[in-house]
């Protein structure tokens, strides 16, 4: 059975993961509206991955005989100006999620819940990748500046991203 404090922080993390999906969907809609369909694809795929992350936590709590406490998901901010600003918001958000995942790890340690501490390591590694992906795109956008041809090529590249379901047990 899962420790109550750990269960509570995992339920809060579920909410953060689903909020992340909403945020990425809002960003995808923005990119669709301005005609950057590759960027829209990239953020839509990211939204699906965030749902996976929430569901992995959901399943873990159930597997540990815990109680799911779904909370209200806030509406994301939709005030976006340009691709660079969106990806800077993405990086900031992923850093926030990383801090939150680290808190889950610390709580697991404090409560001597080694199973959850082992489980959360997957998320820690995932967050390193999430931040690196956002930073890579930010660097490219800064390098390109106002060059529309480079933006067009990056949009094409981001359009090739495909969704692959995340599953903790299979990794």
| Largest β-sheet summary | none
Radius of gyration: 17 Å
Query: Which overall shape is indicated by the principal axes computed on the Cα atoms?
Result: elongated
State the separation between the terminal residues, measured CA to CA.
23 Å
Q: What is the number of helical segments per DSSP (H or I, 4+ residues)?
A: 5
Query: What's the number of extended β-strand segments?
Result: 0
Fraction of residues in β-strands: under 5%
Chain-averaged pLDDT:
95
Unreliable parts: none
Q: Helical proportion?
A: over 70%
Structural class: mainly alpha
H and E order: HHHHH
Task: Characterise this structure.
The protein has helices at residues 4-33, 37-63, 83-110, 114-144, 148-158. The protein is mainly alpha-helical. The two termini are 23 Å apart. The model has no long low-confidence stretch (mean pLDDT 95).
Topology diagram in text:
Layout: H1 4-33, H2 37-63, H3 83-110, H4 114-144, H5 148-158
Any descriptors?
single chain, 171 residues, mainly alpha, 5 helices, 74% helix, elongated
Task: Quickly describe the structure.
The chain contains five helices and no strands. The protein has 171 residues and is mainly α.
